[in-house]
Automatic annotation (TrEMBL):
InterPro entries the UniProt entry points to: FApF (IPR025737)
Keyword tags: Signal
Protein's UniProt keywords contain Signal: yes
Protein's name in the database: Outer membrane beta-barrel porin/alpha-amylase
Organism, as annotated: Algoriphagus chordae
Top-level taxon of origin: Bacteria
Signal peptide range: 1-19
């Protein structure tokens, strides 16, 4: 057994990038025995709180975060499996409409992070790198379970990076090959999922509120990706999300999230063990004047043990 660098383009893992999702290649089927780290930088301007799950009428937030994800792929009874976890340092500033006028606010620390596991369901066997290199791409489906924990939170502050609650995310990532031409493959990545939220029993937005709850949210994230060369690829990214209305002491807020968003991404295999991409995303249409503009830069370092 020899320790060596992985010589194929592999996973980009991420923070759930607010209205723009995980990003392309986040749930690609992959060989087992891979370890990696995926740091990112995101700059966002939006009227959703830093977690991207609550719409705030009349607000404008500028958010800079640098999520770092660690991941490992392996096999469970012949099925592909992956565990991964993310921490998310960052900062945010913003303006909100408040009596008697506009209030400037800021926050620093950590946004919400997660621990997660993915397991093969359909056409997702546990393959070594050697086996994977001979594998013919086909439709794959995995099951993904992600548990989000709160980042930095202070109920005395109007703006927080953390949410002071847990989020349970359940979904089924799918990869659909449209063309398997060597070096010029085209495929569709789609990830439908639901998020369920526990209550915030120490809400910061109102001194009179005892509990802030939130209704479940559905989302589907899609990436149509094409390799122009074995190293250069691009994707058209599009997504839809619905739900997430907040409930304060049993009273529904008028902040339902109903957003159609998307953008574009360009990536390159810089070195055998180093991949990178840049992307832009925005809201195409949305209720309640929802708006998001996002710039994203991501790199992924990977390695594996390979048999001679």
């Amino acid at each position: 057994m020899k320790r060596s660098l992985l010589v194929i383009t592999i996973l980009f893992l991420s923070i759930k990038t607010f209205a723009q999702g995980d990003g392309p290649k986040s749930h690609n089927f992959a060989p087992t025995g891979i370890w990696g780290i995926n740091p990112k930088y995101l700059h966002l301007t939006q009227n959703l709180v830093p977690s991207g799950t609550i719409l705030v009428d009349g607000a404008e937030f500028t958010i800079d975060v640098a999520p770092i994800t660690l991941f490992h792929t392996f096999g469970i009874k012949g099925r592909y499996a992956r565990v991964y976890a993310m921490i998310n340092p960052g900062s945010a500033t913003g303006n909100v409409e408040a009596s008697p006028g506009v209030t400037s606010i800021n926050a620093n620390g950590f946004a919400d992070g997660f621990v997660a596991m993915e397991l093969g369901l359909i056409n997702s066997p546990a393959l070594t790198i050697q086996e994977f290199s001979k594998h013919t791409p086909t439709f794959t489906m995995t099951g993904n379970l992600r548990l989000w924990y709160s980042g930095t939170y202070d109920s005395e502050k109007l703006l927080n990076l953390g949410t002071n609650r847990w989020i349970i995310e359940v979904g089924t990532p799918m990869n659909i090959p449209l063309s398997t031409t060597p070096g010029k493959a085209t495929w569709l990545e789609t990830y439908p999922y639901m998020q369920f939220y526990t209550d915030n029993n120490d809400p910061a937005r109102s001194a009179r509120a005892e509990v802030t709850a939130q209704k479940a949210m559905f989302r589907i994230e899609n990436h149509l990706t094409h390799n122009f060369t074995p190293k250069l690829w691009a994707s058209f990214d599009f997504s839809y999300q619905y739900g997430g209305r907040t409930v304060v002491d049993g009273v529904d807020d008028d902040n339902l999230i109903n957003i159609l968003g998307g953008g574009a991404t360009v990536g390159y295999q810089v070195l055998p063990y180093l991949s990178a991409y840049v992307g832009y995303g925005t809201v195409f249409a949305g209720d309640n004047d929802a708006n998001v503009d996002m710039f994203r830069f991501s790199v992924a370092f990977t390695y594996a043990n390979m048999k001679k």
